[in-house]
């Protein structure tokens, strides 16, 4: 059995991140294609997405959980290409189990993803040396991460998508606990497998529009009023589903009672879910896929396990016990074993008459039948000693002597070593059961994936129903229009209610009918004092976009979300003595990376950029960043920037085409002229205020968050 259910390998070659993942259950070796330039991709982010049990790395790395350092030569491209070719040479049968979106690794792909191919070769080499049997029937396929939105660790942390904290118990510091976050809000899963898959869904938002629509369609059907009772039954059934991944891996080498119980229970869950989905009539493909499972196969699997194993007796004896009527040979031998007491009693009478002293017939497994005589009978007067002609002493203890004679020899022939025969017969029955279960493992693995998928879909539906979310419209033109949007996490924690807000970031040639968006621009600057809710509005805008790409509903009354390839945020101050950089230096580095990679389909968040230096320089840095982000007429990314002025609220007006939103009864408009052109990592350095004008606000105070 494999030591690890999921094994990954990562390596950086010429600033290109390569990765591969091996699933020991499905026998799939996933060779990762990052699509876009992966020079700045985060190893930690990928490890969180893949969720491996261990990671192969060409050198020791304390930042990677369960990292296994191996020789760097194992990551060579040529070696990896040879090993993948060898694995896929016998993959004709394995390709039958491939998922719809998977494709075999071809030479053209291999040469354009050299780092990932090298990682796949490292995994194959490691398994050949440690667990060669795991590669039987394996197949190397492509895992295209370019079909997913790119979100770095800084953005995940800024948006509180996950918020893991160490366990407060000092004896459980290795454990993590999930505090209030977007994931905990969406996580209404009922099974362990569903929990793990939803975590991957949230970590890997989709970018392919058809897949997003498929998830939305499935969620919308589950939310229909006519399926309310069916959804409740589905949730109750899913809560009974046990994780079978580890069970399927262990059962290839040995049988454990807990694994057999899990598989029997899982068979029931699959059968019940099949019936519930069938009763719904026509449903979207993601739900309909469950009906492609062979229900009769799981009926046979469940009945086979239940009819073969006596679970009550197994728990009592702490071993797997064959059930009655499962095997005629086991039943016959069990009946003989139960009748041994009568046979031993009769033999004791016959041997006592022959020996002239009390004799007890006993049975020891493997040793057979013996006669037992107390040693005190051998210290009597002459003529009173036992008559043991033809008896052979086998061994003795301090109190007993054990002999073989013609009576025990006859019993050794019939009934014979009953206990050993019974164990052999049970082992033969259980070995046959093990073989039949192993034959079902590919279908069990596929069923586990589909059950977990259904669990994720019902979880998204349950969260949408509980919090009153709406179905977003996905726009290919990159337009973002959010009406009465809410921050999902803060809303769930707020006892006084949440003040909803609109946000409009139209794309080029936007044709959506939103009257409030007439004066909107591709970049939005939110101004106001501390604790006025500026960051909340920026985060909720990004979270609505993020949730839409997960495939679920969003916290708004109406939302049009543009198809987004990247969300990049500069939010948290991050000084680092270890890296010898100040908070300002860290912010400059982060924004420089954002500006270098932001494209027309990206969403950029700048939260208080320019802090940590003088107000003039900070304002200039923000203006320079906005100017560069809004430089292109059609290729500019959507941008939400947050800033404030000391002592007064206002809105920043610069040469860049941006919209402003402030919280004040008096709004200050500042026109900024960028002068003294000097760059720091591509960002303008200095600016000066050349004009200032104020006016009274007509609408009164605007509360972004209370």
From TrEMBL:
Domain DNA mismatch repair proteins mutS family, chain residue ranges per copy: 602-618
PROSITE patterns registered for this protein in UniProt: DNA_MISMATCH_REPAIR_2 (PS00486)
Keywords: ATP-binding, DNA-binding, Nucleotide-binding
UniProt protein name: DNA mismatch repair proteins mutS family domain-containing protein
BP terms from Gene Ontology: chiasma assembly; mismatch repair
SUPFAM superfamilies, A to Z: DNA repair protein MutS, domain III, P-loop containing nucleoside triphosphate hydrolases
Family matches, as Gene3D superfamilies: 1.10.1420.10, P-loop containing nucleotide triphosphate hydrolases
Family: Belongs to the DNA mismatch repair MutS family.
Gene Ontology CC annotation, any one: nucleus
């Amino acid at each position: 059995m494999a030591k690890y259910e999921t094994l990954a390998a990562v390596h950086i070659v010429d600033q290109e991140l390569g990765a591969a993942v091996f699933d020991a259950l499905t026998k799939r070796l996933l060779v990762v294609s990052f699509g876009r330039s992966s020079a700045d991709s985060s190893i930690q982010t990928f490890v969180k997405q893949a969720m491996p049990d261990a990671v192969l790395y060409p050198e020791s790395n304390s930042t990677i959980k369960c990292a296994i350092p191996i020789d760097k030569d194992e990551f060579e491209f040529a070696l990896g290409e040879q090993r993948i070719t060898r694995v896929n040479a016998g993959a004709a049968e394995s390709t039958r189990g491939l998922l719809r979106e998977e494709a075999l690794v071809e030479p053209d792909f291999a040469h354009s993803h050299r780092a990932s191919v090298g990682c796949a070769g490292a995994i194959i080499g490691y398994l050949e040396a440690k667990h060669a049997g795991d590669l039987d029937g394996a197949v190397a396929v492509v895992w295209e991460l370019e079909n997913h939105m790119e979100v770095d660790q800084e953005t995940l942390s800024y948006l509180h998508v996950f918020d893991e904290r160490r366990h407060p118990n000092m004896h459980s510091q290795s454990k993590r606990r999930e505090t209030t976050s977007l994931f905990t809000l969406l996580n209404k899963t009922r099974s362990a497998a569903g929990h793990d898959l939803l975590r991957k869904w949230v970590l890997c938002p989709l970018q392919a529009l058809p897949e997003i629509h498929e998830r939305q369609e499935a969620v919308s059907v589950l939310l229909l009023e006519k399926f309310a009772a069916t959804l409740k039954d589905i949730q109750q059934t899913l809560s009974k589903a046990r994780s079978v991944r580890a069970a399927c891996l262990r059962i290839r080498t040995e049988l454990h009672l807990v694994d057999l119980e899990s598989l029997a229970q899982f068979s029931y869950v699959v059968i019940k879910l099949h019936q519930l989905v069938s009763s719904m009539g026509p449903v979207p493909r993601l739900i309909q896929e469950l009906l492609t499972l062979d229900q009769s196969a799981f009926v046979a699997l469940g009945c086979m396990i239940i009819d073969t194993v006596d679970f009550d007796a197994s728990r009592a004896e702490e071993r797997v016990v064959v059930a009655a009527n499962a095997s005629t040979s086991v039943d016959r031998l069990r009946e003989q074993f139960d009748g041994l007491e009568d046979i031993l009693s009769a033999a004791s009478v016959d041997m006592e008459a022959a020996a002239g002293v009390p004799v007890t017939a006993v049975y020891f497994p493997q040793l057979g039948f013996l006669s037992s005589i107390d040693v005190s009978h051998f210290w009597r007067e002459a003529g009173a000693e036992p008559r043991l002609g033809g008896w052979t002493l086998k061994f003795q203890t301090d109190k007993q002597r054990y002999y073989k004679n013609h009576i025990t020899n006859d019993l050794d022939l019939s009934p014979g070593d009953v206990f050993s025969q019974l164990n052999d017969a049970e082992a033969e029955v259980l070995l046959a059961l093990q073989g039949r279960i192993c034959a079902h493992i590919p279908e069990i693995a596929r069923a586990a994936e589909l059950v977990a998928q259904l669990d994720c879909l019902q979880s998204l539906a349950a969260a949408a129903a509980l919090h009153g979310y709406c179905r977003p419209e996905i726009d290919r033109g990159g337009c973002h229009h959010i009406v009465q949007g809410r921050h999902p996490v803060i809303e769930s924690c707020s006892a006084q209610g949440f003040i909803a807000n609109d946000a409009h970031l139209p794309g080029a040639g936007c044709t959506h009918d939103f009257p409030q968006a007439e004066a909107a621009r591709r970049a939005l600057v939110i101004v106001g004092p501390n604790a006025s809710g500026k960051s909340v509005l920026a985060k909720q805008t990004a979270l609505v976009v993020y949730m839409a790409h997960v495939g679920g509903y969003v916290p708004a009354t109406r939302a049009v979300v543009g198809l987004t390839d990247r969300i990049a945020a500069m939010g948290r101050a991050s000084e680092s003595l270890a890296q010898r950089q100040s908070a300002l230096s860290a912010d400059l580095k982060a924004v420089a990376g954002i500006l270098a990679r932001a494209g027309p389909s990206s969403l950029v968040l700048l939260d208080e950029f320019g802090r940590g230096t003088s107000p003039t320089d900070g304002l200039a840095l923000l203006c320079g960043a906005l100017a560069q982000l809004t430089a292109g007429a059609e290729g500019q990314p959507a941008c939400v920037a947050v800033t404030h002025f000391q002592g007064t609220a206002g809105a920043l007006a610069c040469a860049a085409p941006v919209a402003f939103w402030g919280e004040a009864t008096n709004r200050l408009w500042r026109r900024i002229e960028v002068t003294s052109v000097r760059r720091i990592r591509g960002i303008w350095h200095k600016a000066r205020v050349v004009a200032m004008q104020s006016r009274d606000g007509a609408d009164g105070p605007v509360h972004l968050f209370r």
